[in-house]
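User: I'm putting together a teaching handout on how multi-component assemblies are represented. Below are the sequence lines for each component of a complex, exactly as they appear in our records. Could you produce the 3D structure of the whole assembly as structure tokens, so the students can see both representations side by side? Please keep the chain order the same as the input.
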Amino acid sequence: MKFIKHALKEVFDFFCGDWRIFWGVAISIALIEAFHKVSALAGLIPYAGIIFVIGVSLSLVLALKREITH
Amino acid sequence: MVWSSALPSFLASMVEFVKALTIVLVVGVTINWKSSLLGAAAATLTLAALVAIFGSTLVLFIPIEVLRLVIGIILVLFGMQWLKKALLRYSGLKALHDEAAIYEEEMRELKARGEIDPGKFNGFGFLTSYKSVLLEGLEVAFIVITFGATAATNKIDGIWSATEGALLACLVVVVLGLVIRGPLTKIPENTLKFIVGIMLVVFGTFWAGEGLGIEWPYEDLFLLVLVAFNLALSGVIVWWLKPHGAAQKKLKSQAGGI
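Assistant: Of course. Below is the structure of the complete assembly, with chains in the same order as your input.
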């Protein structure tokens, strides 16, 4: 169990290494997917590109903010 | 030659090969060149096998639309890591990589181990060299496979171009290493890291967006808009972080003076 946890952490650190970036990007993707799946949000589809770019950028800003507050 | 595959591979490889070469040089000088070069060669073969196995799996079995979404997301995450480190270094919140200091430190550690016969194959030297080339090269192998498989319409051409970019970087770093015969302190590692970070994030955002059904205006030309946006954002971030970096430096020097 300890080995699996360690291996998973190594994989996470190799590909991402920061939970704020991970969740920021994941939420942005989920949001864009929701535009296509939820009819009430379909009106936002033309802005999906801008929202996605802002979501990704905010992830980076939040990750860096953590570095200065620690 | 597919430039969108070859260029990111070339730049990323430069960064990683400089770090790997530093260790290979240290092992060569302190233990012996036989163990050091054998370790580096064995790691290179392992990396080539990884690229061949995973590259061909991607080429043969996974459709380009799926690849673009999955690889786009991974590239954004991967690129953010590089970009974050580069921005922290630019703003003074993280120390710049000093290859000369790393070189000296590794030398001290290896010399402290003693019992070295310069003419004989040394298992520790082999493993140190192998491990460093393999670890630094893994990121390169990942970039070669992902950019190669997604940037070009023909995935084999893409992977081949990305491999050519990485091999060229390896050649440049090795030749420079032979000429300088020491750590490559002149290569601006943070600038390269920043450029590669921007490229990974831009391509990753673009491909992941396409995979999510986003129709980018002006199609491929929108990549330039993303580059401009990310450069401007990085400028603002460095401007925002610099006072914090200066404050941290001041605090450290005050603590050192006590």
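A couple of points students might notice: Helices of chain A lie at 2-15, 19-37, 48-69. The radius of gyration of chain A is 16 Å.
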